[in-house]
Design goal:
The protein has about 350 residues and is an alpha/beta fold. The protein has 14 helices and 8 strands. The structure holds 2-acetamido-2-deoxy-beta-D-glucopyranose (2 copies). One 2-acetamido-2-deoxy-beta-D-glucopyranose (NAG) binds next to loops. It holds the Pfam family Gly_transf_sug.
Length: about 350
């Protein structure tokens, strides 16, 4: 094995391992199907079933929602009302910009600076929901989610979130007991994830939004939490669409910008993009490989200039001629490419000698 090639491959392997290590959670998220924690439809009593009463309900009967002020836009009034009407015995809290900030100031002053520093209001709306769940417990529902049936069966799990397709979990409907270890970890890590990622959409997703939550969740479940600290996952069919589903959806997310459409497009074409990614990596890898070969060749020629005298004095075909030395350290693939142009004779010589 040629040492040059070996070193080159080793360096590449090292870089690859470093990259994979940094994005390993993201990569593993792609193949995480949440099956181990899924709430199975068989364990969910049907609406109005007497079985509902028999399970101890541990999540407090509180519904949290957020909006910037108390004037809910017309499009969401019906959704909001459907949840309130179905749950007359639940406490209902609408967190506005003002009450959210008051809550953080009073209960989590260490977070106030980060909270105020968020560039996008949606980041505050995202983060406040984790804090109120960690503090009071209850169920958080986005304003554009209406209720299709009573949420009582979901009160029997210590914590739950909703599965999203193709990957991860979302933060638009979640429930938790107060001080649940998962949400405690979430609020703890918010500051660490408060970074900018060029595109507003990615910044929001990865600093406070569903991607942030999914990454924390993926790392959390790798520790095999106990029954009480488990986060159960509401699967898409139980989320909405069917008569037994819990929610109805009213309108699309209100805050997505142009870059979001681009990212949705990327999401829809991820196979193609992954293929392109590999192709690009291969091309870049080959270019690096080629450059590396050229540099070695250059080095060999450079050294030759200084040893010319000695090789003239004792001319030997098997001593240290530059092309031979370069050949020894240069990857086989590159030899012909590099020698062809300026040393056509060397190439044929090389090809003739290949047996030894
Ligand atoms: C459950 O009960 C409510 C009111 O008692 C009723 O309006 C609703 O249709 C019932 N749902 C089912 C699926 O039976
Ligand atoms: C809430 O915000 C909307 C839109 O910015 C505004 O029209 C409305 O007057 C505000 N409501 C209150 C109670 O301040």
């Amino acid at each position: 094995m040629q040492r040059g090639l070996f070193v080159f491959l080793l360096i590449n392997l090292f870089i690859l391992i470093l990259l994979v290590r940094n994005v390993s959670t993201l990569l593993s998220l792609l193949v995480e199907d949440a099956a181990a924690d899924a709430i199975h439809r068989a364990e969910l009593p049907s609406p109005n079933s007497s079985l509902i009463e028999q399970h101890p309900q541990i999540i407090p009967k509180i519904i949290h929602q957020t909006y910037k002020n108390e004037t809910i836009p017309e499009v969401w009034v019906n959704a909001q009302q459907s949840c309130i009407d179905l749950h007359p015995d639940y406490e209902y809290i609408l967190w506005t910009d003002e009450t959210s900030r008051e809550f953080i100031t009073a209960k989590y002053p260490w977070f106030l600076e980060t909270f105020d520093g968020y560039k996008y209001p949606i980041q505050r709306a995202d983060s406040i929901r984790y804090f109120v769940l960690a503090h009071y417990g209850g169920i958080y529902i986005d304003l554009d989610d209406g209720c299709n049936r009573r949420l009582d069966p979901l009160l029997t799990y210590p914590a739950w979130a909703r599965r999203t397709v193709p990957t991860g979990i979302s933060n638009d409907a979640m429930g938790s007991v107060p001080q649940h270890p998962f949400f405690l970890r979430v609020i703890e890590l918010l500051q660490q994830y408060d970074r900018h990622w060029l595109l507003p959409y990615i910044t929001v997703m990865y600093s406070t939004g569903p991607l942030f939550l999914s990454v924390i969740w993926k790392e959390y479940i790798q520790d095999y939490p106990s029954e009480m600290s488990r986060v159960r996952i509401l699967m898409p069919d139980e989320y909405k669409k069917y008569s037994w589903s819990f929610f109805t959806h009213h309108t699309g997310n209100s805050w997505h910008g142009k870059d979001a459409h681009f990212i949705f497009w990327m999401g829809q074409h991820w196979m193609f993009l992954t293929f392109c990614g590999f192709l690009l990596a291969a091309v870049v890898g080959f270019c690096l490989f080629w450059t590396y070969g050229r540099i070695l060749l250059l080095g060999a020629q450079y050294r030759y200039r200084y040893s010319k005298v000695s090789s003239i004095i004792s001319p030997s075909r098997f001593s240290s001629s530059p092309s031979r030395r370069a050949r020894r350290i240069m990857p086989i693939l590159l030899r012909r490419v590099s020698f062809k142009r300026d040393e056509a004779t060397e190439t044929s010589f090389e090809l003739g000698l290949r047996d030894d």
